[in-house]
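Appendix B, Record 12. Input sequence as logged:
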Amino acid sequence: MTAFVPDTPLRVVAVLSGTRALRIEIEGDLDFSTADMLVATVRTQMEDNPDVRELELACAGMGMCDSAGLAALLMVRRRTSAVGVRLALTGRSAQLDRLLDITGTLHHLTGASSETAKGEDRELPQQ
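Logged structural output:
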């Protein structure tokens, strides 16, 4: 018998900090049924705020992330990179870091190696 486990609905909240920094808080599961919402939110926010140079995806409230969620994060990275926006994934859980590590995307998405990710505080670096 297979048990049905309902998805945790995704909630994304965008907060503009000045004109150059955007924070998007992610709460809930980032999966097949919700990944497009994150990509659409990022796209809309980037189009509405063309002066943004830093995008923070605050992942502390993120639950499960499946392959579609990972694809959404990679799409966000592609979009930000194309327009010269620095991307930071903050508040990452150990599970998210493990997913990024085993898929070989940790450094690409965060700039961290698997060794440094284990010991870092997962916050946006101060500049």
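The first strand starts at residue 11 and ends at 17.
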